Amino acid sequence: MKVLIRTTANGKEYWDNEGKKILFVPKNEEPLFDVTESPTTMLHKGETVKPLDEPVFTLEGMNATQLREYAEENNINVPGNLKKVEAIREYIEEQLAADAE
Question: What is the pTM of this model?
Fold first, then answer.
């Protein structure tokens, strides 16, 4: 499977999923291979790769208020004695892991 990943002033770059390399096609030329439009996933040897447009959720970068709001939305009761961002994040991650089991 070959997917368009970037367009530059000089041409277009495609990702070759089987060959695990980038293929460059100069401007005003057509690729000499089939291009997969809008793939939902890219599979190779049993590996699943998320599409580039799908955001990856992370608790990193959230402040204490955002973490407490996230916890409330997910029915996690954060103890009031947890004040530091790292402690709140760690508590939420532990609760999520316990729920996943």
Answer: 0.46
